[in-house]
Design goal:
It is built from 3 helices and no strands. By secondary structure, it is mainly α. Helix 1 runs antiparallel to helix 2. The chain is rod-shaped.
Length: 99
């Protein structure tokens, strides 16, 4: 009975890892389609003049860089989850019980 539980538990873990990877990739794609990534291009001399305008522009670029970094982090994490699921699938059933 313990063997069956361990294999079933691993199957659930594999499914959870793949589901999490899918959700992270979906979130990454949503960030990639977001207008937040292009709003910086709307801030220019015609929009706003003065040091405050430059500060706003700089902050928008900073947020854009952070979003792009976070987007890549989500994709990287999804890849790690999928690799772990692949590793678990490759284990013989006896070893799955202990991982």
């Amino acid at each position: 009975m313990l063997c069956i539980y361990a294999v079933m538990s691993n199957t659930v873990q594999i499914q959870q890892l793949r589901s999490t990877a899918h959700n992270l990739r979906s979130l990454s794609k949503s960030i990639g389609r977001s207008r937040a990534l292009t709003v910086w291009s709307l801030a220019g001399p015609d929009t706003w003049i003065g040091p405050t305008a430059q500060s706003c522009y700089d902050q928008l670029l900073t947020v854009r860089r952070q979003l792009l970094t976070n987007q890549q982090t989500l994709v990287d994490s999804a890849g790690r989850f999928e690799r772990r699921a692949d590793e678990l699938e490759q284990l013989p059933p006896v070893l799955r019980m202990v991982s």
